[in-house]
Amino acid sequence: MERRKNKQKKLHIRKGDTVKVIAGNAKGKTGKVLEMLGEKDRAIVEGANIVTKHKKPSANSPQGGIDKIEAPIHISNLMLVDPATGDATRTGRKLDENGKLQRYSKKTGEVIKNG
User: I want to staple 89 with a disulfide (CB 3.0 to 4.6 A). Which of 47, 62, 67, 105 is the partner?
Assistant: First the structure.
């Protein structure tokens, strides 16, 4: 079967969600999702997976230097934090009264608001 390029995948996390890193060097850290890189299944999380980037001197920054930035993390290494309890939880989808899919916490059963 041919896969459509413009069809967006349904992911368990979205931009603005608070997530916990469950694997890798930043394991145990929590932060807000700043950006989603959907085509690579990665997300940039605030304060997690910090890497050093060396900048060459240029007209804008004649000094150059070393910057610390957040690198993308694969979404399989992230877990959504339940807003009610503050614990990491798995998510499910169920239809609301209007027929739209809503994400909900598997631990508490509460609907998770976007962002």
Answer: 105
Give the distance from CA 6 to its chain's centroid. 21
DSSP helix/strand/coil, 113: coil
N-to-C CA span, the chain: 34
* Positive/negative CA dihedral, 58, 61, 64, 65: negative
Pairwise CA distance, residues 38 & 11, whole Å:
9
Instruction: Tally the residues of the chain.
Output: 115
Q: 96 phi and psi, to 5 degrees? A: -90, -175
Report residue 2's pLDDT band, with 50, 70 and 90 as the boundaries.
Answer: low
Say what the pTM is: 0.79
Give the separation between CA 3 and CA 39, rounded to whole angstroms.
Answer: 13
- Token pair listed for 60: 């804008």
